[in-house]
Amino acid sequence: MKLTGPFIQILTMDKLPLRGKIADEQLEIVPNGGIAYQDGKIVEIGDFKLLQQKYPSATLDLLTENYVALPAMIDVHTHICWAGSRAKDYAMRLSGKSYLEIATAGGGIWDTVSKTRQCLLAELARLTAERANALYAQGIHTIEVKSGYGLSLAEELKMLEAIHLANEQTNADLIPTCLAAHIVPKDFAGNETDYLEMLASELLPEIKRRKLTNRVDVFVEKTAFSVDAATKYLLKAKDLGFDILLHGDQFTASSAGLARQVGALSIDHLEAADENEISILASGSTIPVALPGASLGLGDKFAPARKLLDAGTSLVIASDWNPGSAPMGDLLTQAAILGAAQKLSMAETWAALTCRAAAALNLHDRGILKNGYQADFIMFKTNDYSEILYRQGRLMVNG
Fold this sequence. Notes:
six-stranded mixed β-sheet; 14 strands; globular
């Protein structure tokens, strides 16, 4: 057994609601605390001196300076498996070019698809692990990673295989998601219905056979897939036993009803969500995921996080790290900025990065520091947890 402490504060993130508003006063804070753990699992959290007495044979990891401990952060939406760069797209966007104009000029998602298809499996895995390691160093220990830059049977399988290989090359825990329904590929001879039928009948059963992921995503938007086509696809994926989720309401308010109808685990983006969409989400169980990195990358408005919480929904914050719309890849900074813009309490922001994020991935062993959960905690050198978000990403993780 190992005992780490004393921490000036331990934020356990325990006993918080999955949905609705959270006041800072609801946070469970253990002062002068210690964390006792064995075989990667927490045995007990409590007063450090009392834990020393209770577990006299424990190996001590004695802290001589003031640290705050929290559960390791969880990033539930990334696209870190890619090759190439879209810096030219960014420059064109800054000069006033539209998404369609950029795509016509050879940029956009298809540019990344072309470069990712050209990338060998081992190199794609290396690039993915490199980015995962960068997130891990920021205190993000669980990272969802989407496919979606292959857009063919063979290339989507390659991407998911690359994510599995990358998982062996990083200390982070990578959670793969199939986003083969990202856009209809330019080289596919058929319409959106034909493409999604091919994915449902050929790709998803093979993914299930190889045990490459249990999560399926689809991008619902005018430039991607319609609500009707996405509904049929997600229901087929659900019948196959996959957890289902969707990119929704990024540019057009149209997806909340779909999310509720199919029982999607999460709906991610929501920058365009209006009062009707928020009301629909409040009446269901789908978890809204805000992606402030995409808002910053595109110069677009933020998802209405405050309104979602006030309506009684859950809220998760993720980075959306990708080569096109969200190239920053700094989750804590993005969350702090969103919190300031949307007037989120610190408790709401931390819940969106930990316990509520775990729920969005259907994981029930992390995101909270409590007995029996993973001993997966991060440390900030500070006297008070409020300093972390106050510094807006400049106060770095120490362990």
